[in-house]
What does this fold into?
Amino acid sequence: MGLVQEFVLRVAGGDCAGVILRRHGALSSVGAVDPRAEQADQLQVEYGEGPSVPLSRAPGGVLIPDTAADQRWPRWSPQVARLGLRSVLTLPLATTSSAVGALTVYSAAPNQFTAGDTAAALLLAKHAAIAIAGVEEIADLARAVEGRHLIGQAQGVLMERFEIDADQTFAVLRRYSQDGNVKVRVVAARLVATRRLPDGSAVGGHGAPAAG
It folds into this structure.
């Protein structure tokens, strides 16, 4: 994320930059190295308003010539002006299928960003969005593989201790998942780590646990 910010500052100018991403349905501020950009982005998340909220796939981005005069976001803009950030350029991080986040460039000077700056930065943001979406997809796949591995380990423990088959062990894990309102992989991870079922019973007693 730091490289994206470094390049966009070279392309568009400005003093600092931040990124807001959508993760698991919620927005979060990530990767800002300047405390002013970090605070400005975090205020967007907290207030639920600002040029990044809601995430937009509008191709042109959002330009604020001067936060001290902007009236579109009555809580956010004055706070950002007090941070000493006057010009704001927000660029959508969007692929053809989804909006993954927003990249915002801040400047201490008003009227900092030109149409040429915006066009060049938008091109960079497009490539950054594709890269970020790819990383997120890989991370989701890795989590799925890890979860399946944990479930397999937990099934092996139950099969060994209770002499039940794979379908029965998964039914047991699923019942505890439903009873505890947690994911099956969470039940599996706890079982593997503690050798105990969620109700506290040790894996190693006599008789198979009920599958529900």
About this structure: The first strand starts at residue 16 and ends at 23. The chain has two domains: 2-113, 133-212. The radius of gyration is 24 Å.
